[in-house]
Design goal:
With about 400 residues, the protein is of the alpha/beta class. The protein contains seven helices and 27 strands. The strands form eight sheets. The protein has a six-stranded mixed β-sheet with strand order 17-14-18-22-21-19, sandwiched between helices. The protein has a five-stranded mixed barrel with strand order 23-25-24-26-27. Strands 6-7-5-8 form a four-stranded mixed β-sheet, with no helix packed on it. The protein is elongated and about 100 Å long. It is an enzyme of class 2 (transferase).
Length: about 400
């Protein structure tokens, strides 16, 4: 794939996702408390009807036949209710308790009276006051599909069904290599050197897309020599499914990423995408002795371009590796006119209004700037050869907000 013919932005995302999907790791069984942030490898199905038995929604009386009713017992949550066999009888019942077989109505305690003889009277409400078996789900029904990101709500549903463990996809392991002798890792920029802003932030984005990134997996700045680049990439690949690099994606005198990939026998999946900012970026697949491919994502050195490359190539790749679906981009209304970028997709940093339906571009959006990113909630996506007029509906690429959130 030639750098002279960049891949369409949407095609680049699709290629990255498909590569990840084909390389998704084997499933593993994990306990419910440890499943948060993982991905369902199999559909979550109801193991029994939910609820599994008729369940009272009130504190009151379970009655049979016409009133008044003679109390013959009590049933609490967790107990087995004996049947009500005789008309004119009732049992006291608690919320969540099993409704006795033979009961034909439930009467709220606050809407009942008892006479001197202890008989219960009252008018049950017309709407039944209990949950019937299968009201929420029937046994064997698919509740959530494979590929669902597991969060506390999913864990709660699984526990309600009776699961103790879930079949999940492994978390992709990621590493980061920061290239550039001009970078400072501490202090303020000056005297020809700039502060590295990607080393501290990229791991956070990777975690939000479901990857694990240990502190030891972040290395840099790597010396600007081919030997140092090659050694750093080889070391990173020993413990990672994905290695991200920053800088060195062009062909300048100190850009050694392409020669490094050549020596590793890498296959380019995307050798730059037609998007601005974000040019140039790359995604390569590197063969490994264990038969599983490893991936390297080359992010540009300019900070905003690097983050756009991460959202373009790395986010879909990680979704595929985890067996998650390729995310669809919602449509929002452009609050102002937004220009296009010729034959390139234009990603425009923007903030949503309170309704979440309209987006306004933010300022400070140069390739080397991060101020705009820090004030944005995502990007308006202006397709090649188009522009947006205020009021137009355009795709919106949201920033991930929490670890493990779907891309």
């Amino acid at each position: 794939m030639s750098e002279d013919t960049p891949v369409d932005w949407e095609q680049a995302r699709a290629l990255a996702y498909e590569a990840g999907r084909r390389a998704a790791g084997p499933t593993e069984l994990i306990s419910l408390p440890d499943a948060d942030g993982r991905t369902l490898a199999e559909p979550l199905r109801a193991l029994t009807d939910l609820p599994a038995f008729p369940t009272s929604s009130i504190d009151g009386w379970a009655t049979r036949g016409p009133q008044p009713w003679h109390p013959v017992g009590r049933v609490l949550a967790g107990g087995i209710a004996p049947p009500l066999d005789e008309a004119g009888t009732c049992v006291e019942i608690a919320t969540g308790a099993m409704v006795p077989p033979g009961a034909d109505a439930l009467l709220r305690i606050e809407e009942s009276t008892r006479d001197a003889a202890g008989l219960v009277s009252g008018v049950p409400r017309a709407t039944p006051e209990w949950r019937i078996p299968g009201e929420e789900a029937h046994r064997g029904e698919e509740l959530l599909p494979a590929g669902t990101a597991i969060d506390p709500a999913v864990i709660g549903v699984a526990a309600t069904c009776g699961y103790e463990a879930l079949s999940v996809r492994p978390r992709p392991r990621a590493a980061l290599l920061v290239f550039g002798d001009e970078l400072l890792t501490a202090g303020t920029p000056g005297a020809g050197r700039v502060r590295d802003s990607l080393g501290p932030q990229v791991p956070g984005w990777l975690r939000r897309y479901g990857a694990t990134v240990d502190a030891a997996a972040v290395t840099g700045p790597v010396q600007d020599t081919l030997e140092a680049h090659l050694a750093a990439v080889r070391t990173a690949l020993t413990g990672a499914d994905l290695v991200c690099t920053t800088g060195g994606t062009m062909h300048g005198p100190v850009d050694h990423l392409h020669p490094t990939l050549a020596k590793l026998g890498a296959e380019y999946l995307v050798n730059t995408a037609a998007v601005r900012p974000g040019f140039p970026m790359l995604l390569a697949r590197i063969p490994d002795a264990d038969g599983r491919p490893r991936f390297l994502a080359g992010l540009p050195g300019n900070p905003q371009s690097a983050i756009i490359a991460l959202f373009t190539l790395v986010a879909p790749l990680l979704a595929g590796l985890q067996g998650r679906p390729m995310p669809e981009l919602p449509l929002v209304e452009a609050a102002t006119d937004v220009p296009g970028r010729g034959n390139f997709t234009h990603l425009v940093l923007a903030r949503l209004d309170r309704s979440g339906r309209s987006a306004t571009p933010v300022g400070h959006v140069g390739s080397a700037m991060l101020r705009g990113l820090s004030n944005a909630q995502g990007f308006l996506v202006i397709r090649p050869g188009t522009r947006a007029t205020a009021g137009d509906l355009v795709p919106f690429l949201p920033l991930p907000l929490t670890p493990g959130e779907r891309p």
